[in-house]
Amino acid sequence: MTATTMALFVNRGQVPAPDPIAQAARFKAYPRTVALEKYPGPQVFAPGQNTVSLRYDDYVPPLPTRAEFQPTIPDTVHTDFILYLFGNGALLMRNSGETIDRFTWGPAPSRAGDPSLAATNRE
Fold this sequence. Notes:
This protein is an all-beta fold. It has strands at 6-10, 13-14, 35-36, 44-45, 48-49, 52-56, 66-69, 72-73, 81-86, 89-94, 99-105, 120-122. 16% of the residues are buried.
């Protein structure tokens, strides 16, 4: 994650805030750990389709203030994986670097005062 004010929800459960880490010269990451369980539930991933929702409290127009996508975790994933979250997309990878799923979302529709949900595309 790259925003301290982004709320992350996995299967409708909010994931606790990240631990602070040292800032790099031009980028600051905020890692969060989410469990991988046999069955899906709030705040945990499971094999099959999962729902991830994001809420950005410090967004910069035209980026959206909210996004939601459904990554599918293969039954063959029994170890840790990495989910990178960006202002305009997400990337789910195995620790080996192999891409599992990728999502993008564009600028939010322009509606005054509306914290709009971005249209999400699976690549």
